[in-house]
# Entry
Amino acid sequence: MAPRIRTIGSYATQEKYSVNFFGEELTVTVTPDPSVIGQWIHDVLSNNRFSSHPLVVGVGVQWTPPAYPDYTFVGVWNSQDARKLERSRHQLEIDDLLDLRKYVEDSSGRRSMRGCSFEVIVEECLGYRGVRLDREISMSDWSAYELCDDQILQASIDAHVCFKLGVKYRLWKV
# Structure
């Protein structure tokens, strides 16, 4: 089943979408405004303050040249994403950065997937077939005032998959 997206809210500082990813409904916020991101972080921390379970958050970054606003989506897929976040106008800092490719294993638990593609890791580790990051979308204009649905879907799936892998492999213990 191909992921589907629909708009659920449009505001001055952000757009809200619902993404259906293999039957899971994800709520996605798209914003160039650092205060929206700050509020999201505050809300997540506040809503989870009494949880005994470690907080795992996936952050995906779609990069534009410094002259343009950055759109940030709430895994860090690789260390380049963390450096981009630190250099962006949002100036988000990542404490415990993990390149997920170094920690995931095949379904038998015997083979490292360090050199595998996003698509192979997602299928082998999470069972989602056909999920990939499209290079053309990755290289598209992320500075556009309105992102297209394909951009929002790709960034959303990237962040969600990284979150799922972080939880599955209990990466807070690394």
Summary: Helices lie at 34-47, 79-87, 118-126, 135-138, 149-168. The chain has five helices and five strands. The chain has one domain: 4-169.
